[in-house]
Specification:
- The protein has a single domain, classed as Beta Polymerase, domain 2 (2-Layer Sandwich), CATH 3.30.460.
- It is 36% helix and 20% strand.
- It has 5 helices and 5 strands.
- It is globular.
- It starts with 15 loop residues before the first helix and ends in a 9-residue tail after the last helix.
């Protein structure tokens, strides 16, 4: 006698914000990114609040990985965490070489550098310097 087929329930993965209708705030996104960076042992992480300086996003996060592979692993881990939280429109550039990976996460932009590249571009200076007064002649 043949065994009766068992029914298997198939469920689709649904992003948390699709269920609740909620979207992560800029601060929640920032905290999620910072947590993932800490998990991956990213180095010299700074978060810069640029609300009022840019209409495009609220925070810039700059961090370093020790070598190219570490930079790539950090970016992949952050991307995975954001996708799990329901943020799916993440634009990433630089994963081919992993010298400098840029991630546009909506309200937060993340830069993951190799130390030498970070020192060369010095993005922290760009976002932390106040406006300079115009020189008069």
């Amino acid at each position: 006698m043949a065994a009766a087929p068992q029914s298997v329930a198939v469920t689709e993965a649904v992003a948390p914000d699709a269920i609740s209708g909620l979207r992560l705030t800029a601060e929640e996104t920032l905290q999620l990114i910072l947590s993932r960076l800490d998990d991956m042992k990213a180095e010299e992480t700074i978060a810069i609040d640029i609300r009022g300086k840019s209409a495009m996003f609220d925070y810039v996060v700059v961090t370093s990985g020790r070598v190219n592979r570490h930079v790539g692993a950090i970016a992949e881990n952050v991307s995975k965490g954001l996708k799990e939280a329901g943020i799916v429109n993440i634009h990433t550039e630089g994963m081919t070489n992993c010298d400098w990976v840029l991630m546009d996460c909506g309200d937060v932009v993340l830069h993951v550098f190799r130390p030498e590249v970070r020192e060369f571009y010095n993005l922290e200076r760009l976002w932390t310097q106040g406006p300079q007064p115009a020189k008069t002649l």
